[in-house]
Amino acid sequence: MYILGLNCHLHNASVSLVKDGQLIAAAEEERFSRIKYDGNFPVQSLNFCLEKEKISLKEIQHIGFYWRPWLGIPRRIFIGLRYLPHTLSFLGHHQIPRGTVRIWKSHLAIASVLKNLGYRNKFYFIPHHLAHAASTFLVSPFEEAAILSVDLAGEIHSTYFGKGEGNQISELSTIKYPHSLGILYAAITQYLGFQPNADEYQVMGLASYGKPRYYDKFKQIVILLPHGGFKLDLDYFIHHWGRDRWYSKKFEELFGPAYVKGEDILKQRFVDIAASCQKILEESIFHILRHLYKKTKCENLTMAGGVALNSAMNGKILENTPFKRLYIQPASFDAGTSLGCALYIYNVLLNRNRSFQMEHAYWGPEFTSSQCQTALQSSGLSFRCEENIIGESAGFLSQGKIIGWFQGRMEWGPRALGNRSILADPRKKEMKDVLNKRVKFRASFRPFAPAVLEENANEYFEMKTDISPFMLLVYRVKPSKMTMIPAVVHIDGTARVQTVNRQTNPLFWELLKEFQKITGVPVLLNTSFNLKGEPIVCTPEDAILSFKRSNMDYLVLGNFIAWKK
Q1: Of 176, 13, 34, 195, nearest to 107 (Cα)?
Q2: Percent helix, strand, coil in the chain (nearest 5)?
Q3: Do domains 2-139+330-349 and 181-328 have the same CATH topology?
Q4: 2-139+330-349 falls under which CATH superfamily?
Q5: How wide is the angle at C-alpha 26 spanned by C-alphas 164 and 333, nearest 5°?
Q6: 113 contacts 119 by C-beta, under 8 angstroms
Q7: Fold exhibited by the domain 181-328
Q8: 3-state class of 434 per DSSP?
Q9: 3-class DSSP state for residue 164?
Q10: By the 8 A CB rule, do 177 and 283 touch?
Q11: For a Cys-Cys bond, which of 13, 208, 293, 395 suits 492, CB 3.0-4.6 Å?
Q12: How high is the pLDDT of residue 92?
C-alpha cells in the first residue's frame, strides 16, 4: 500500500512517500527548484518520490494534504469583521500571503490539481496541527507520549496539546490564532530586519550575544494563564490585519525603532531584545509543558511545529519540566506535515499498527559514482578517484582545510547531518570567522555546530539526553573541553550538538573516528552545504556550483576528491 503526504502553497513545500507503514522517501521542493522556502506545488519532490519506488501517481492508494481549508473559515471571518477595515488587506496581494483569500483558494483546489495529474484514489484534508502531531508521535520510539505542536498558526489554532497511545492521537486542548508564540517570535524576527517565518534561527543565534534586559516588557505582551494557556496583548501586533508588517506602532513605542538596513545588528539594544524574546518563549513553553504533563501523566514528550526547531529552548526542556524523555523529528516545521499526513492515514485512519521509527534523516535523493564523475568531468575542476576517501579527508581536515562533503541520501529537514555538509576542524578558533566570511558569506555572529561520535558525546557536552542525532538540542560545552573545540562553542558556552551513530551513518562515523585518531578529538565542525540565501545542495551539480563560488579547499563527492585548478 502506497500513501503520499503533501504540503504546499505557503512555504517549505514537501512530499513524503510511505509504503506499508514504512517511510520510503521525503524531500522539500526547495532542494530541487533552488528557491529557498519554496511553497509552490512540489512537482519535483513528487517526481523524486515516485521515481524512487518506480511507480506512477495512479499506483498511490491514498493522498493526504496538510490543511483542511474550511476548518478556519468561521474563525477568520470573526477576526476579519472584528478588525475592519484593517482586515480588508487580506483581499490583496502580499509578500507574506498567509491567511489571504488566494492561499485559501489554492488549498481548497488541491484535490482538483491532483485529479488533473491523473490521480483518482482517496484524498484527505488533514488538519494542520494534527499533521504536525502525527509527524512526531507516530515516528517516535514511544508507545505513549504527550504531544505539543506549536507554530505560527494552522486553520484555527497556533498551539495543540495532545496525547498519543499506540496508533491513536487524542486532542486535549488548543490555543487559537491570533494568539501565537510563533507569531511573537516571527514578529521579533521581522523587527530585527530578518525574514519572518524563515529566519527565526538567526534571532535564536543573536540571542546568545545579549542579556534579557527587556524581559519585563515582554511580560506585558505575553500573558501566561492558568491551566497552561497564554494570550498575546494584540495591541502590539497587526499580523491578524493581513499586513506584511506584523508588529504595531505601539510595539515600537515600547522597544524603540525597528532595525534599519545598514545598522549594526550586534547593537546592544537589538541583541538584548533577541535574548529577551528567547527567554519569554522558553518560559512560555515550559509553562505549557508543565500543564501538559499534569494532563497526560506521561514522562515521554514529542514536539512538532516551527517553534520545535528552537534548539536553544529544546535543550532546556528536560531540566525545566517533569518530562524525562524528548523526541523531535528532524523536519518538525511545516515540511514535516507531509510525513504526518501519510502516517496519519496509515496508522490512524486505516488503523494499522505502527512499525516505523525515524532514527535518521537520510530520506532524499542519492547519486551514483558514475553520476558524480560525469558532473565533475564537465565542471572544469581537477579531481581524482580516491580509494581511501576517509583517510584523505580526515588528513585534510586535521590540516585546517575546509571540505564540502557530499555523500549518500540527502537529509530531510533544515539541518545538514553529514551527507550534504561543509566540514572543518573545530580546534581552530578562527575557523568560525573564516567560514562565515570566506565560505558561507553570512553574518559574523552566526554559530556553527559540532558533530560528535555518539559514544564520546558526554565527554564533551553536558547532555540531558543520551543522543541528539538531528542537531535540535543545544547543550553546554564542558568547561574542560571549550578550549579544545572553540570553533563550535557559542559565545554563551553552548553548542547545538549532533551525535553520530555508527549504524545510521557509517561513513560519517568513520570520518569522525579517523579524525579522532589523528587529532585525539572526536568532533568536527559541521554546517550545511549551501551559501547564504540558498537551499542545501541536492545534486552533484549543485555541490560543484557552490564549491566553485566559495573558498572551500576541497570537494569530496562520493569517492572523488576535487579542487580548483
Answers
A1: 13
A2: 40, 20, 40
A3: yes
A4: ATPase, nucleotide binding domain (3.30.420.40)
A5: 55
A6: no
A7: Nucleotidyltransferase; domain 5 (3.30.420)
A8: helix
A9: strand
A10: no
A11: 208
A12: 61
User: Dihedral angle at the C-alpha atoms of 496, 447, 405, 440, nearest 10 degrees?
Assistant: 160
Give yes or no for a contact between 497 and 475, defined as CB atoms under 8 angstroms apart: yes
Tell me, letter by letter, the H, E, C secondary structure of 188-230. Answer: HHHHCCCCCCCCHHHHHHHHCCCCCCCHHHHHHHEEECHHHCE
- Which is it for strands 560-563 and 554-557: parallel, antiparallel or unpaired? antiparallel
Characterise 121 by phi-psi region: left (phi > 0), alpha (psi -120 to 50), beta (else). Answer: beta
pLDDT cut 90: percent of the chain above it? 90
What's the pTM value of the predicted model, to 2 decimals? 0.96
Is 254 within 8 Å of 236 (Cβ atoms)? yes
Contact 153, 67 (CB under 8 A): no
* Counts for the chain of helices (H) and strands (E), in that order: 20, 21
Give the phi and the psi of residue 122 in degrees, each rounded to 5: -75, 140
Domain spans in the chain, listed from the N-terminal domain onward: 2-139+330-349, 181-328, 369-563
How many other C-beta atoms are found inside a 10 Å radius of the C-beta of residue 264? Answer: 9
Helix, coil or strand: residue 257: coil
Model pLDDT, residue 485: 98
Residue with cell 530586519: 193
| Contact partners, residue 366, CB within 8 Å, separation at least 6 | 408, 409, 410
What's domain 369-563's superfamily in CATH?
A: Carbamoyltransferase, C-terminal domain (3.90.870.20)
The SS3 of residue 40 is coil
Terminal CA-CA length for the chain: 50
Residue 415 dihedral angles phi and psi, to the nearest 5°:
-105, 135
CA atoms within 13 A on the CB side of 400: 6
| 96, 197 Cβ separation under 8 angstroms | yes
**Digit-coded pLDDT (tens) for 22-49:** 999 999 999 999 999 999 999 999 999 9
Measured CA distances, 550 to 156, 395, 436, 538 (Å): 44, 21, 11, 17
CA angle 197, 113, 109 (to 5 degrees): 65
